[in-house]
Design the sequence.
């Protein structure tokens, strides 16, 4: 079944650790996104990608980095985690509108990160 | 860039009442306006969307209206049910291949039985 997968779902780590949040999609979508969201709060776009080898920074300044080596994979890395990074991270994907596709974004289940 | 304002931030209604959530946007080039519903602990999901060539769209108990002149759009939920309780986000986009969605801050809707 076409879907977006995120691992891990929950992560508790200590300050200073390097972490990578995984996101994979089997939707066949070109565009992928990372959002940061505190519970019940607004969605902040932190990174996005138009396709392979494309990465862009979003509206919210973030100390994380992303890569897009494969169409279906869009991992997010924090080189040195801090308590201020504690949040939920949502991955999403959408079709490329230029191919007549829709703008609808499909979201993954999220990774809840706690940095102690 | 685009700026989307959403009101109210919280809305409490009795079951069976109607609920209205309003959004305004700043970029007159925006032409795609989706609404997402996020239930507690779950991912946001699209519930309805509208494009600028349409003034109103309806899907069962939910409807969206768009006023391009005033740059605002609204979500209307009729005959609310407890399962409508969730956070609702509006968004706007210019709909090109290089565009992204700009989301409002969300409205927490609570429907009491």
Sequence:
């Amino acid at each position: 079944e076409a879907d977006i997968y995120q691992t891990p779902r929950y992560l508790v780590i200590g300050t200073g650790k390097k972490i990578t949040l995984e996101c994979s999609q089997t939707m066949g979508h070109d565009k992928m996104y990372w959002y940061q969201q505190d519970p019940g709060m607004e969605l902040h776009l932190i990174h996005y990608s138009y396709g392979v080898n494309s990465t862009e920074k979003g509206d919210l300044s973030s100390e994380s980095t992303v890569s897009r080596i494969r169409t279906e994979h869009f991992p997010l890395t924090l080189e040195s985690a801090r308590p201020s990074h504690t949040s939920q991270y949502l991955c999403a994907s959408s079709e490329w509108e230029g191919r007549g596709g829709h703008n609808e974004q499909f979201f993954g289940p999220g990774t809840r990160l706690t940095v102690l | 860039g685009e700026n989307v304002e959403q009101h109210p931030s919280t809305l409490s209604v009795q079951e069976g009442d109607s609920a209205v959530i309003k959004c305004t946007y700043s970029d007159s080039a925006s032409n795609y306006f989706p609404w997402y519903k996020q239930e507690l602990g779950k991912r946001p999901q699209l519930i309805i969307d509208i494009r600028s060539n349409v003034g109103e769209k309806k899907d069962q108990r939910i409807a969206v209206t768009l006023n391009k002149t005033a740059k605002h759009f609204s979500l209307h939920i009729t005959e609310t049910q407890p399962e409508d309780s969730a956070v609702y986000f509006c968004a706007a986009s210019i709909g090109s291949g290089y565009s992204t969605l700009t989301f409002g801050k969300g409205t927490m809707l609570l429907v009491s039985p």
Notes: Chain A touches chain B through 21 residues (CB under 8 Å). The mean pLDDT of chain A is 92. The first strand of chain A starts at residue 4 and ends at 7.
